[in-house]
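Schema walkthrough. Field components (list of strings):
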Amino acid sequence: MNWGRTLATAGVLAAVLAGAAQAKDYSKIVIATEGAYPPYNMHAPNGELIGFEIDLGNDLCKRMNIQCTWVAQDWDSMIPALNAGKFDAVMDGMSITPQRLKALDFSKPYTTSPTTFLVLKNGPLAKMPDTGQHVSLDDKAATDKAIADITPILKGKTVGAQTATIQANLLDTYLKNVVTIRTYKTTEEHDLDLSDNRIDASLASTSYFVSTLSKPGGDQFVEVGPLFTGGLLGKGTGVGIRKTDPELVAMFNKAIDEATKDGTISKLSLKWFKTDIAPPAS
Amino acid sequence: MDELDFLGNTLLQLLSGVPLTIELTVGSVAIGAVLALLLTLLRAGSRIGALFVSAFVFVFRGTPLLLQIFLIYYGLGQFAAIRASVFWPFLREPWCCAILSLALNTAAYESEILRGGFASVPAGAIEAGRACGMSRLLLLRRIILPLAIRQALPAYGNELIAMVKATSLASLITLMEVTGIAYAIISQTYRAIEVFLCAGIIYLALNFALTRGVAAMEAWLGPSVRRA
Amino acid sequence: MGDLVRLLGFGPTGWGASLLTGAAMTLAVSAAAYLVGLVLGALGAWGKVGGSASTRRVVDVYTTVFRGIPELLVIYLIYFGGSEALSSAGHLLGSTGFIGLNGFMAGTLAVGIIAGAYQTEALRGGFLAIPRGEIEAARAVGMGWFLMLRRVVGPRTLRFALPSMGNIWQQVLKESALISVTGLSELMRAVNIAGGSTRLPFDFAIAGFVLYLVLTTFSGGVLRSVEYSVARGERGR
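Field assembly_structure (string):
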């Protein structure tokens, strides 16, 4: 059997080809989003993509004077598909993290929001300690204290998060031996399982929970636990771009700067999130 | 050499999902076989039974398995009445839902296979058994079942392979079998092609072993009725 | 009930239109995949029946591999690997650009390649079922190989392979649901999105069941009538 060699060759070939030269013409680009991460991006009943990132992306493209088209793509294959050249940029609430920076580049952040737990209002976890307290994962002492605070109540519980997210990474890093972790294809699916009582809590960004709480049946949930930021959670969400396209990163950076300064991002944020999660202007 | 290391590591991690893949396959095929036998008996029992079985087979063979899993896992949980029922402790678990949907799906196919197997038993063989004074149960055990199973075995083997492949869909409802682990590795390394290739090799090996097993069993049960 | 009508309807908050568009996309991608499978299957069967020992081995590897790997993996592999393979083929032919492979094309190709493996066996089985005497008779009256293919081997193979070919069509229709993972807005994805965002997965899964059953039943009826007309002249045997 030559499987080993064939595989190795295929792997090397794939790696070489993935880096193959691509035409550097940025007058028309394709931006991918998930269409299932409200209010960042979602599908309207008629199938159209709508949401904060769609509005913002279109605004940025106008500033860059380029033509943008949108495609929907499952979250868990977003980065491999970007690197396989299926599209040129990702706007899908993707946080800028050290781990992801090894595989792709990011623009400056356009939103920042903490991560926290969502539980059933009448469930046992509704009284989780440290609720509303800001904890930066860059601060080791504060992190250790917060994890120690919530460990007793979480012991043996099941917590859901979306596959390949910073939240799944957080659970894996800090709470692996405390809780059972379940990972989902979409965030909406862990909401379904939470309301069905299949899991005891879900972990996601507060900006995402805005939409969960505002939907019919949202009043059964409540956000609890510390508000985590920093560290492996990254520096806010940015536009994901292939490492081979630094020019495109620069173009997006300039446009995001402008949109932050003239208040466009804050305005869109208030429209979709009902609160301003734009990063401070630099 | 990094490349080979990565592939080796990936393969090892994926192998840790094989027990769950086998568990899901064996569990659903076993439950599916019992259901299929019940369906076959129900079909032979009464006209209403036959109608019900046809409807069951029609629905489960006419829709994608992925949709069936989605209905059973996410769909049933929508109702408070189901969440309050005695079934909920089972339906709450993704493992049970995966086995249940795979078993219902394969039962529809297996009942058709069984029907074909029973239809192939020559009337002469049954008459001969009766002429020797065999009871109904003895007739079933000594004549009908062996002949029917032998006839149905090749098709059954194909169904087993289809089920091994179908277990990969369980990853979509949070189970960490081979494909689920593949997703997890990709979420860390972003190298989809290599990881999915390794997973593919594992499934191929499983199915290769399965094909060999079924062939050995065919040989053990003697030559096929039709081929003879 | 009124709520359900609104949700499945065609108004501004109804998902009816996107479900129906999804069903149309399912039909389109399945038809395209079936065609790809038919071409590959014809080539495969030809290789397996009339090819040299090494051709037969190549076809054997093809049918074993693509019937032994989960469809989901094949779709991912072709979605991610396909555009790289195509681009490198393009490089050899002198093109410098990047050849993309969108969800539709990748899905068509993946499901088509899988269907081709099954189609190879179906067509081979159909060919082997032709009584040898018919081919000998055709030779005896002096038919050339092309005429023989067109008048005897082709129609007779089809006649015997049609039931399996019908099953493969149903299989393709159902496998197309897996293409939803590439983001193609076919029926399964429409059901998923609507069920997730309204938090009413049951209602939309049932709607999905109904639409898939309409697709499989309707196309099954068409297939049976084709079978009936191909089997013309043999009825009552």
